[in-house]
Specification:
The chain is an alpha/beta fold. It contains ten helices and 15 strands. It has two domains: about 5-120 and about 275-300 and about 325-330, NAD(P)-binding Rossmann-like Domain (Rossmann fold, 3-Layer(aba) Sandwich), CATH 3.40.50.720; about 125-265 and about 305-320, Dihydrodipicolinate Reductase, domain 2 (2-Layer Sandwich). The relative contact order is 0.16. Bound molecules: 1,4-dihydronicotinamide adenine dinucleotide and (2R,3S,4s,5R,6S)-2,3,4,5,6-pentahydroxycyclohexanone. (2R,3S,4s,5R,6S)-2,3,4,5,6-pentahydroxycyclohexanone binds near residues 157, 170, 174 and 226. InterPro entries: Gfo-Idh-MocA_inositol_DH, Gfo/Idh/MocA-like_OxRdtase_N, GFO_IDH_MocA-like_dom, MI/DCI_dehydrogenase, NAD(P)-bd_dom_sf.
Length: about 325
């Protein structure tokens, strides 16, 4: 049985997901696409896929059994609510939404529907190295986690399109989510420190040091640098009571030549997390085929949104901004 999927948003990641859904993964077919730029949707549409004028028409269509949202963050809420109203499983790229109120509306709609339909694109949870790191922490031999250092460096970001809020509400959300998941903890407060501005990004506020205070007392120390130039560099190290566990550097061919001995660094997220994205969709296809979702939930999207909101407040106030969450709805108890 083929799962007939409709993809909304055919920009960078939309095209990459269409490639994996058509050329890499099985049990799935891209039956429809939509983008506010119709020419981009037409160019990205695989053979035989229908191009819709609007996301609403795509979501409502009988051709589409499940939806993949790859539009810009602020557009996600409306599209998610339409999918939930239609009762269709939906994979939504991060950030799930861009405000606390929007996250509450998505969770309210899904809990009223009564079954999980939403999976958020926090792909690090599907990365084999992060999974092994979590298994070591959960195994308990190192004792309680005390400090997690999360380094998140982008070579560059699209000039003009990527604004000064985005290191916190678009990029940091990955570190927020992976920290909560790795440490099995909840973030209760956020501080932000601003080193001197990198001249590489013009007026863009970059880099950021973000401290996530967790309910257990553990602290996550995040570096967000989005114009580091040399490559896409993701690192993580957990200091526990009796030892340290770290993500390995990605293995790459070792090149020796007149310039020395070196390994290449991934250019961007598409290269670094290629297997993780494949795996997140493998698991989504199975769940969506059963009319539901798996992995990162709307609750996780909500938690990451609260961290982003608190971080944005912390930039303004310079203070430790506290986070208060609603009680976890029963629908997300197992997630
Ligand atoms: N999980 C990950 O590692 C990554 C996630 N993302 C997320 O994916 C989303 C898209 O990012 P990119 O592909 O890099 O952006 P992009 O700008 O390359 O593409 C976005 C596309 O969505 C379309 N679009 C925007 N609003 C729309 C609407 N209301 N209806 C229909 N189409 C609409 C745009 O015309 C554009 O073609 C963002 O939420 C971003 O944060 C992006 C890169 C990596
Ligand atoms: O999600 C992603 C992008 O949208 C974001 O802009 C980058 O900073 C992240 O590293 C990438 O994983």
């Amino acid at each position: 049985m083929m799962l007939r999927v409709g993809v909304i948003g055919t920009g960078m990641i939309g095209q990459d997901h269409i490639r994996r859904l058509t050329k890499v993964l099985s049990g799935v077919e891209v039956a429809a696409v939509a983008d506010i730029a119709r020419d981009r949707a037409e160019a990205a549409a695989p053979e035989g896929a229908e191009v819709f004028d609007t996301p609403e028409a795509l979501i409502a269509s009988d051709t589409v059994e499940a939806v993949v949202i790859c539009s810009w963050g602020p557009a996600h809420e409306e599209q998610l609510l339409a999918c939930i109203e239609a009762g269709k499983p939906v994979f939504c790229e991060k950030p799930m939404v861009t405000s606390e109120e929007a996250a509450l509306r998505v969770m309210a709609a899904e809990t009223a529907f009564g079954r999980r339909l939403v999976q958020v694109g926090f792909m690090r949870r599907f990365d084999a190295d992060y999974r092994r790191l979590k298994a070591v922490i959960d195994g308990g031999t190192l004792g309680a986690p005390l400090i997690y250092k999360s380094i998140h460096r982008n070579a560059s970001v699209p000039e003009g399109l990527y604004t000064s809020e985005m290191p916190l509400n678009d990029t940091l959300v990955h570190d927020a989510d992976i920290s909560r998941w790795l440490l099995s903890d909840e973030v209760t407060g956020v501080e932000v420190r601003l080193p001197r501005r990198s001249t590489r990004g013009g007026e863009l506020r970059d880099p950021h040091i973000v401290l996530l205070h967790c309910a257990s007392g553990a602290i996550v120390d995040v570096e967000i640098s989005v114009n580091i130039g040399y490559g896409y560099d993701i690192r993580g190290e957990v200091s526990c009571e009796m030892g340290v566990a770290a993500l390995p550097n990605r293995p790459a061919t070792v090149v020796s030549d007149q310039y020395g001995i070196r390994q290449t660094i991934p250019e961007d997220w598409r290269e670094r997390f290629i297997e993780a994205y494949d795996q997140e969709f493998r698991e989504w296809i199975v769940a969506a085929g059963q009319g539901t979702a798996t992995g990162p939930s709307a609750w996780d999207g909500y938690a990451a949104t609260l961290v982003a909101d608190a971080a944005l407040r912390a930039v303004e106030s310079g203070a430790h901004e506290k986070i208060t969450m609603i009680d976890k709805p029963a629908l997300y108890a197992a997630a």
